[in-house]
Specification:
Mean pLDDT: 94
Strand content: 5-15%
Number of domains: 2
Oligomer: single chain
Strand order of the largest sheet: 2-1-3-4
Largest sheet: 4 strands, parallel
Shape: globular
Number of helices: 10
Low-confidence stretches: none
Radius of gyration: 17 Å
Number of strands: 4
Distance between the termini: 9 Å
Length: 201
């Protein structure tokens, strides 16, 4: 019987929220977290995590694809350069974690107070999901949300508003519907199938 205890490795706050929701959906217990230090840190740690997944704990690692020039299998192979341990759930969000968040089209449209038809039917196909999500927030009928999620006019370096991570983390925790989202995002659906297959084996 495979252990239901999982070590979680993620790039950032939003990936943490999404991964936690997914693992809770399968009644898996997160016993440790590493990361939230970006893509490069995860890439450096991935071979050790692959080795650790041969032991008692499974490891769930989630990173973003980021570029249409990549594909998930090639990215995984470039990080690991060898066979994956059976307990290593190395998953790639296509294109970014925001793609999975927006895949709950009904939920995100209601949260942002924007028309549902502004959100594409296949969010994995959005080339720059974070920018697209900010553009949606810019059209929100809620002034407070616009101020929180969109960078202020004249901001030269900020790509998101001051409470971007906070508000979308709250959305994922309290409103994001995983089943609705997985019916839209192919990469999310594959992740759910991979976990289901691992624990039914």
């Amino acid at each position: 019987m495979r252990s239901n205890k999982v070590i979680l490795a993620v790039e950032d706050t939003l990936s943490d929220a999404v991964s936690t929701k997914i693992l809770e959906y399968f009644d898996l217990e997160i016993v440790g977290k590493i990361g939230s230090k970006g893509n490069s840190f995860l890439k450096e740690k991935a071979p050790n995590l692959n080795h650790a997944a041969r032991g008692f704990y499974n490891v769930f690692l989630l990173t973003d694809l980021d570029s249409p020039k990549n594909c998930p299998p090639k990215l995984i192979q470039s990080w690991i350069n060898g066979p994956l341990s059976s307990g290593f759930l190395f998953r790639v969000a296509v294109m970014e974690i925001e793609s999975w968040i927006m895949a709950d089209r009904r939920g995100i449209a209601k949260f942002l107070s924007v028309p549902l038809n502004r959100i594409p039917y296949n969010t994995d196909d959005i080339e720059k999901p974070k920018e697209f999500l900010v553009s949606l927030a810019r059209k929100s009928r809620k002034r407070t949300l616009r101020q929180e999620l969109v960078p202020s006019q004249g901001a030269t370096t900020a790509k998101v508003g001051p409470l971007y991570n906070t508000r979308f983390t709250e959305f994922v925790r309290d409103h994001w519907d995983l089943e609705r989202a997985s019916s839209v995002s192919v990469s999310l659906k594959r992740t759910l199938n991979r976990i289901s297959n691992l624990y039914s084996a």
